[in-house]
Design brief:
- The chain has helices at 8-15, 27-54, 65-73, 77-91, 93-99, 112-120.
- It has 123 residues and is mostly helical.
């Protein structure tokens, strides 16, 4: 180059010869990678929000354990079994985990007397 400044017209004429490529390096592969990355990020954010919204919160019934057990005692046997299992799951998750395998056995699994005895120990 020369040390003299170019005129404006000469500079504009020299710029007309520059042509950018129609497709950048990596073209379609780079576009697909960006789309997959953005979709993964969006899925991660949506799943985090759904997990926070669907997290189980302890039921605030306002009843203490004795009044809850007396309300359960008035239920029919099948409903009482389910309610006792819910109480046991909320109060002692480790004991519930130990007996939950027997719930799906033929014959009803855990009998109601055992459940009542387990829950009675909570009071």
């Amino acid at each position: 180059m020369t040390e003299q400044a170019m005129s404006e017209a000469a500079m504009l004429v020299s710029l007309r010869g520059i042509h950018l490529p129609t497709e950048a390096a990596g073209g379609a592969v780079a576009d697909i990678a960006v789309a997959v990355g953005l979709a993964g990020l969006a899925a991660l954010m949506i799943s985090t929000v759904l997990r926070l919204l669907s997290k189980r919160r302890p039921a605030e019934t306002g009843l203490d354990m004795r009044s809850r057990l007396s309300a359960i005692a008035e239920m029919p046997e099948d409903a009482r079994r389910v309610a006792l299992l819910h109480v046991l799951r909320d109060a002692q998750p480790d004991r519930y985990a130990a007996i939950k395998g027997a719930l799906y056995q033929p014959g009803g699994g855990v009998d109601i007397a055992t459940l009542e005895a387990e829950v009675a120990r909570l009071v």
